[in-house]
Structures are given as C-alpha cells and as structure tokens.
Amino acid sequence: MKKSSTIKILLASSSLFFTTAFANEQPNAVDLVGKMYGGIHLIHLNIDNARLMTAEPRSNVDHGSGFGGEFGYRWTESTEFRFSYSKINLVKEHLGFNEPSSSSMAVEALYFPTKQNFYVVGGLDYLDIVNTQTSLDLGAGYRHYLSEKAAVYIEAKGHYQFSEHFKDTSAKIGFIYFFGDSAKTRPVRKSQPVIKKEPIVVPVVALVEKDSDKDGVLDSHDKCSNTPMADKVDANGCTIFSDEKVSMELLVNFDNNKAIVKKEYFDEIEKIAEFLALYPHTSLVIEGHTSKVGARAYNQKISQKRAEAIVTVLVNKFSIKANRLSAVGYGEDRLINNNDNNSAHKQNRRIEALVEITKQVAIKR
Length: 365
Fold this sequence. Notes:
- The chain is an alpha+beta fold and 365 residues long.
- The protein has six helices and twelve strands.
- It folds into two domains: 3-178, Porin, CATH 2.40.160.20; 244-362, CATH 3.30.1330.60.
C-alpha cells in the first residue's frame, strides 16, 4: 500500500493544530449532548496492493484523493453518531486504463474515552472502488475546538472489505460546526435596587389651635402649609425626609478572546439605561475584566475593548450621552475566581458596573 501519502497528510494536518491559538477553550461534554453538527472534509485513500495484482478492471487503481461532507449527532457525553459521504478521484497505477471515480458512504459511531478531544471511530462503509463493496471501518482521530461550536479534526481509518478481504486505509482532515444554542451559560445575577432608610423622628406638637393641614403643627407655627397628612413633619410643619440610597449593578460575561456584547444581555443593559435616564445627573464607570488565560498586556487591551463595547451599546442603542460614561480595562488584575479551569475563566471574563445615588424620601407617619 502507498502509506507515504497518508503520512504526509497526517503531518500536514498536525501542523495545522499546533499553529492554532491554544487560548481557545474545550467545551464541556455535557453542553454538546443533544446537538447536531455538519462539516466538510478532505480525504486521501490508499488502495490495497492486492487490487493491483488482480485482473482488470481493478489493476488500474492505486490511490485517490477527494472531499466530502458529514452530518453528526452527539448522543451522550462520550458518544456520537455520524453519516458521511466522500467523492474520491482514483489514480491509475498502470498506463492504458481509465482513471475511475470512487465514493465512500459511511455510517459510524465515535467514542470519546475522556469526553474531550481524542476519539475512536468504527462503523460500516459502502466503499465504491470499481464495484461497491461493504467494508468494516476502524480508526482513531483527534478533534481540536476553535470555539464552543466550531472544531477541526484529523482522522485515520482502516477499511476491511468482507467480500474479497481487501484492506484499504484512509486519512481525513475536516471542519465541523455544532448547531443550536451556545453552551449553557451561567445565569446572570439580576440587578436589584438597594434601599437604605435612615428615618428621623421628632416629637409631635400638641394641637391647641387650628391645624388646617392636620399635620400636627398649629397654623401659627406652620411654615409648610398643605403638607400631605401621611408625611411626618418637623416643628415647622414641613415634611421630614430621609436619605435613601438606590443603586443598580450590571454584570455581563464575554466569550473567550471576544469583545462582542451578546444580545442576551441587552435586557440587563437596558435596565441600567433606564436608571441613568431616571437620574440624569448620575454617571457610570464601566469596568472590563478578563481571565488569566493569555498574555497580561493582551488581556488588559481586550478588557478595555469589552468596557468600550458596553459604552457603545448604551450610547447607540439606548441614547445615553457619552460624557456620562467612562470605560476602564483592568485585564486580569481583579480576578473573582483564581482557579485555573474553564468555569473560572468564564466567570472572570466579565463587565462590572455599579451606579448609586442618594435621594430624599418623605418619611411616613
């Protein structure tokens, strides 16, 4: 068999994986369960030497290359099912024969022993080399995730044809994309106003003369007429107010190596915009943070971009004046989870903002 071509393809494929940025994160296997994916691939097929030693028409084929597509489904955390079709152009070994086309139509199962990148694959392949024959496939592969939805892979398989006991081999390099919602995201902490009351209590003045607004202060001493009866008043008949702090908090998470605000956070950002519109004299500092994956200088830069992305949404979508907003990127300096795992990295890739005002509220009786 011509094994050199297969080895060259595998070496070229391996170099592609090692030049891919290692900052990309492996999705959790449980987040892939129930998802379908589609993909494309290149394939190289080496033909069993026994075919070259038999009579025409088999004597004209040696190896072939082509391309194809595939469709798969993640059934469990460690198991997938896949259907693939490849169109292969065969190369003749001897002059005087035509170069026929070939195809492969396979139904296979993939098993991930560690629920991550490495897998073994097996199934049935309807391999058309001059004549369509059923073969048993068995091989292994490695999948490298570019994001939580996209991945590239390399794969090598052996093909055993039942009818004439031919043993062929193939190598693949491919790209797949998972459809459906993104991996399950951590619930966003809801923004809630924090109210702090500091009531002021004053003695009630006894009624000895006319009290028109019935606030407990005689008209002769009442400097604030017609105060609401439900309000507490001071010795001058004026409503007593307490300072009340009202605040809103914003928390937005980002995908790894991204500074794009997801639409799922627009409702939370709108709440901040409504708060700023209700209190037009307030301003807001938006803080950008990253995980500790990658270089410190780059993390500081992308955290600044994430903070500026939130400012852009508030200005362009919710009409908040830019001079009321400021963006500060802290990079990886303010981690909220120091662990070195995917969950901690997702938690640390965030935007935080807190706006707080103090207003006067009438104290009720």
